[in-house]
Design a protein that fits this description.
- The protein is α/β, with parallel strands linked by helices.
- Helices cover 42% and strands 9% of the residues.
- A 4-stranded parallel β-sheet has the order 4-3-5-6, with helices on both faces. The chain has a two-stranded antiparallel ribbon with strand order 1-2.
- The longest helix has 15 residues.
- The protein is globular.
- The structure holds 3'-phosphate-adenosine-5'-phosphate sulfate.
- 3'-phosphate-adenosine-5'-phosphate sulfate (PPS) binds next to helix 4, helix 8 and helix 14.
Length: 305
């Protein structure tokens, strides 16, 4: 068992508090992140760091496991060495003392490191760009993402609970949720790919043809993937496999922090679940706003396959 896991096991539930959102340069972030902002902003990325960046609930964990499998030649045992949040630190996370912050975890890792962030482009520590680090961005259509975010918040005991789905949709569209406007996030990272080493991928494409998207990731990482290794990675990172894998499904996090009886972290893993949640009016409104806000960017999203 790793130190972090034994810390998890002895975690004192009475230390949990609900995180407030504090706006930093137009983006609501968790208060602990903002308190530690100077340390986060001054994080020293190394040239061989690989960053996985997403708006929350876009398929981060999925990409984390794919990258770790590629780095380890498809060796599933090596990828079970620790939970995903320990193998790939979430750099701006610094809630929950006495756990180490994302930065402390990153600093303790040997290179080459893989790191996770949900930060928008303008808040990413500048060293990632100065060091010309490779960045993989995963985007997901806003309807399925909003549904996933809603259910995640319901089970995450450190987040302010929305009244109900209708209220959540409004806050999501208004960008008053953690990490701010989804529209700005996906658009700004889309623009960033023209100036930096950013591989921009879509959750829906991964669902459509996982092998094809894994090959793109491996090529970006300059790793040759022999067919049997690719097949192993595909099998290991399918939703059905990840759902029952304790190294990625967050079941190692105590229930008092993430109550997966309310909603599992690996919930449905599909494209189109939004149809079970959005009213026709909500769906049409979001479509309209999307068309308006994304039209100049050329970015389009698929909401069904
Ligand atoms: N392998 C695989 N295939 C398909 N879908 C997958 C997979 N792994 C994770 N997921 C789904 O991704 C959603 C969680 O998103 P994130 O990992 O980005 O969450 S987080 O921001 O890191 O908390 C969450 O989506 P929903 O099921 O729609 O809630 C997960 O189920």
């Amino acid at each position: 068992m790793t130190d972090l896991q034994s810390n998890m096991e002895s975690f004192d539930p009475s230390t949990i508090r609900i995180l407030k959102l504090v706006t930093l340069e137009g983006v609501p972030l968790f208060d602990d992140t903002v308190e530690q902002w100077e340390t986060i902003w001054n994080f020293k990325a190394k040239p061989d760091d690989l960053l996985i960046c997403t708006y929350p609930k876009a398929g981060t964990t999925w990409m984390q496991e794919i990258v770790d499998m590629i780095r380890h030649g498809g060796d599933t045992e090596k990828c079970a060495r620790a939970p995903i949040y320990e193998r790939i630190p979430y750099i701006e996370l610094c809630e929950l003392k006495p756990f180490p912050s994302g930065i402390e975890q990153a600093e303790a890792l040997p290179s080459p490191r893989t790191l996770k962030s949900h930060l928008p482009v303008h808040l990413l520590p500048p060293s990632f760009f100065e060091q010309n680090c490779k960045i993989i961005y995963v985007a997901r259509n806003p309807k399925d993402l909003a549904v996933s975010y809603f259910h995640f918040i319901r089970m995450d005991k450190t987040m302010v609970q929305p009244e109900n789905w209708d209220e959540f949709v409004e806050t999501f569209i208004a960008g008053t949720v953690a990490y701010g406007s989804w529209f700005d996030h996906v658009k700004d990272w889309w623009k960033a790919k023209d100036h930096h080493q950013v591989l921009y991928l879509f959750y829906e494409d991964m669902k459509e043809d996982l092998a094809r998207e894994i090959k793109k990731v491996a090529q970006f990482m300059d790793v040759e993937l022999p067919e049997p290794v690719l097949n192993r990675i595909v099998k290991h990172t399918k939703f059905e496999s990840m759902k029952v894998n304790p190294a990625v499904n967050y079941t190692t996090v105590p229930d008092c922090l993430m109550d997966q009886t309310i909603s599992p972290f690996m919930r449905k893993g599909i494209v189109g679940d939004w149809k079970e949640h959005f009213t026709v009016a909500q769906s049409e409104r979001l479509d309209e706003i999307c068309t308006q806000l994304l039209k100049e960017s050329g970015l389009t999203f698929r909401t069904e396959l």
